[in-house]
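Hello, quick one for you while I still have it in my head. I'm working through a protein record and want to make sense of it properly. Would you mind checking whether the tokens look sensible for this chain? I owe you a coffee for this, so here goes:
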Amino acid sequence: MKNFCLNSRSRTGLVAATALLLNACAPGQDTPTPTAGINVSHYLAVGDSYTAGLSEGGFTLASQTYSFPNLLAKQLQGVTANAAFTQPLLDAGTGTGYLDLVDFTAAGFPRTRRVAGQAVVRTLINPAACGGADTVRVLTRSTTSSALPQNLGVPGITLSQLETVNLGNASTATPTSVFNPYFERLLPAADSRTYLQAVTTAASTATFFTYFQGLDDVMPYVRSGGQCGALPNTTLMKNNAKKILDVLTAGGRPGIIAKLPAIITLPLLRQGQGLVLEARLQKSFGDTARIYIEDPFGSGEGQHITNSDYVLATALLRLGQLTRVVVGTTSLMLPYGRDIRNPVRNSDVLDGVLELARINNVFTIYNNELDRLAGVYLMPVITEAGTKRTLDLDVSLFNQVADAISIGGVVYSAEPVRGNVFSLDYYSLTPRGNGLVANAFITAINKAYHANIPAVDVNSLPTTAR
């Protein structure tokens, strides 16, 4: 386990920090006089689920309150008089519901139950959705919908939908149409404008922005083990990122661009890494049984998992459970994934031969484009470790928490719930995890704009968004 206390020494350059850096020190350190360095009186946050504040597999008033833009805004307000930050807040007790912890298995995996959300306006059920029937719940419109909020994070929105007309218009929504209920509740009733148009309107009064978008483009493919839908179109992702960043940087508006963290740093995959997972299960079951996965080329035959294959965390609780399998003409009850005759299904694993390589290529192409655009705009970018233009810090938050780090005596790791960073859905962040992300942006602001904005005290935040 490592201890970190990272200091902000202002220096010039295009790249301000590494991917989701850590800038949270132990209490009692000397605090510099807070200064903003730039005009942050009207901050605009643009992005998808992380920006919106999704947490514990749901979207609630509590999760919005602890979104990283809201935590960042509070720190900006401490150095800028009369700075405001509005979010499209849900009413207390409403929202999508969330996951609640029941207990842990012998292997240390959390068991959860779903706490249902409150009544919604209506539902749209698409029985032919990719991966099975899908229900879209239309939520109560935000009270800020007459004037766009400053947090434009929209759960589930993709860059490919940037210019989709009626994306947030419930009056035209059908079970099979492209519709996002979270975008809908930001807008006035029957509003057909696109997300790009909404960002353009909101940016007209913004003095500073953050951009962290693109993870929701890749998550459907990852969550389905590469079986549901096509890979994201990287050309479309790049072109639309440029369109939105052209708007955000217009007139030299300052801001911070964040690149995507490596997908295998998320617990959704990291918890199920091949041989590491196998050893963990062997210790838990007290045996030497291997893990077998289906042949990624579609033969249906089982093969021993490798350390380049990742069982999705959503399937971990089923490993070893007896399920019925027909072998030849005989029906047998065999442990799922722990018998070569009953391998982990392709939909429950991201294999390293095809699927992981494909999705990593998407990340590389997109992140390289963000890095290129940052150079064009002369804009700081929170980037991966190892780039030549990184300033001082080369510590990736998501990589570092995998090894466990200590902040003020509190341990942070990639272990869901117990590690303080990731929530019960193995993907979204806890309030403390959001605090670390907010500090990544603060680190970047301080370095790029010669500011002294205090870091969020992450240890003072709750461990769950409830």
Observations:
- Residues 2-266+379-460 form one domain.
- Residues 208 and 253 are 6 Å apart (CA to CA).
- Confidence is low (pLDDT under 50) at residues 2-29, 384-395.
